[in-house]
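Milestone 3.1: sequence recovery, worked example.
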């Protein structure tokens, strides 16, 4: 899992430049999607052919899963690039008529560049419980917040106290999915930036995950992906 102390930054590219560097035969990529049962996947594959208005990709690592996606469903194509990734939002077109074992995907409708981090932060507001030990404290302190944004590598929220110097930070994140138990993560403090809101001083606090289970990471990634697809928007920071 990738994390860091740098803020996420995006750049918008068009179909006339950098995306063409990735749309070529044998190029490696990941496909991000949810199937008809609303299960989340992020699978590796390669481009097989490039046509004028669509591309054909090889079946990913778990072959038949992509056939469980409805034609017209929006998916993400994720390409590695120097110092980041390129994420292209595309339409799933179904099996290739001339090569039924392969999959047709429409050309990207929206393309974003994500620098330094692998995961997109989305402005998804969910409830979170944050517990920590402040400097020289022997008692754990706990508070509840609503996230300002969230990703597969960390969360950001507003609070009236800075977490600078705090240790053993743990979070329970209550996602709006079908699972009632919260996601549990261990975190480290990235920054606390003062912000004046209605004459009061708050802190915009960013935490990055130091430990998260594969299952909980998948839950967060699924909610972030669904937010992107529903809003067709990836926020710039």
């Amino acid at each position: 899992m990738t994390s860091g102390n740098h803020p996420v930054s995006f750049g918008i590219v068009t179909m006339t430049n950098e995306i063409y560097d990735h749309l070529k035969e044998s190029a490696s990529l990941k496909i991000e999607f949810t199937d008809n049962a609303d299960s989340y996947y992020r699978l590796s594959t390669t481009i097989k052919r490039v046509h004028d208005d669509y591309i054909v990709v090889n079946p990913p690592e778990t072959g038949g899963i992509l056939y469980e996606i409805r034609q017209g469903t929006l998916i993400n194509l994720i390409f590695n690039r120097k110092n980041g990734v390129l994420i292209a939002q595309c339409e799933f077109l179904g099996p290739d008529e001339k090569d039924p074992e392969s999959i047709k995907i429409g050309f990207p409708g929206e393309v974003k560049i994500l620098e330094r981090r692998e995961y997109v932060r989305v402005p998804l507001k969910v409830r979170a419980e944050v517990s920590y030990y402040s400097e020289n404290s022997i008692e754990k302190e706990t508070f509840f917040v609503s996230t300002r944004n969230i990703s597969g590598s960390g969360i950001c929220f507003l609070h009236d106290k800075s977490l600078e110097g705090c240790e053993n930070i743990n979070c329970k994140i209550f996602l709006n999915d079908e699972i009632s138990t919260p996601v549990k993560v261990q975190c480290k403090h990235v920054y606390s930036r003062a912000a004046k809101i209605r004459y009061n001083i708050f802190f915009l606090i960013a935490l990055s995950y130091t430990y998260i289970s594969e299952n909980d990471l998948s839950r967060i990634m699924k909610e972030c992906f669904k937010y992107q697809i529903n809003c067709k928007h990836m926020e710039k920071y």
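The CA atoms of residues 95 and 101 lie 7 Å apart. The first helix runs from residue 19 to 22.
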